[in-house]
Amino acid sequence: MAERFHTMVLALHDPARALSIGTRIIGIRAGRIVLDRPTQGLTLPELYALYEG
After folding, report:
1. How many C-beta neighbours within 10 Å does residue 15 have?
2. 45 SS3 class
3. pLDDT at site 6
4. pTM of the model
5. How far is CA 26 from CA 3, 21, 34, 47, in A?
6. Adjacent-strand bridge partners of 9
7. Alpha carbon distance 15, 34 (integer Å)
8. Rounded to an integer, what is the distance from CA 46 to the centroid of its chain?
9. CB of 50 within 8 A of CB of 29?
10. What gap in Å lies between CA 27 and CA 15, rounded to an integer?
11. β-sheet bridge partners, residue 13
12. Distance between CA 27 and CA 16 in Å, rounded?
């Protein structure tokens, strides 16, 4: 059976939830990508920093 890949785009403002359900996080600030990483090894403080402009 062939592998199937599914992509889902969510706009979440809860970093803990994003880490718990995602495999990759892309952070956008002022229309620019400022973070694009797999969730593995990503920490909550790194995600909270996205909100500190």
Report:
1. 20
2. helix
3. 80
4. 0.74
5. 24, 13, 8, 10
6. none
7. 15
8. 11
9. yes
10. 10
11. none
12. 14
Residue in the structure block whose two tokens are 């592998």: 3
| SS3 track for 1-53 | CCCCCCCCCCCCCCHHHHHHHCCEEEEEECCEEEEEEECCCCCHHHHHHHHHC
User: Do residues 19 and 44 touch, judged by C-beta distance below 8 A?
Assistant: yes
The first and second tokens of residue 18, run together, are 């994003």
pLDDT values of the chain reduced to their tens digit, one per residue, 53 residues: 457 778 888 888 899 999 998 899 999 889 999 999 999 999 999 999 888 86
CA distance 20 to 18: 5
- Give me 34's structure tokens: 């400022």
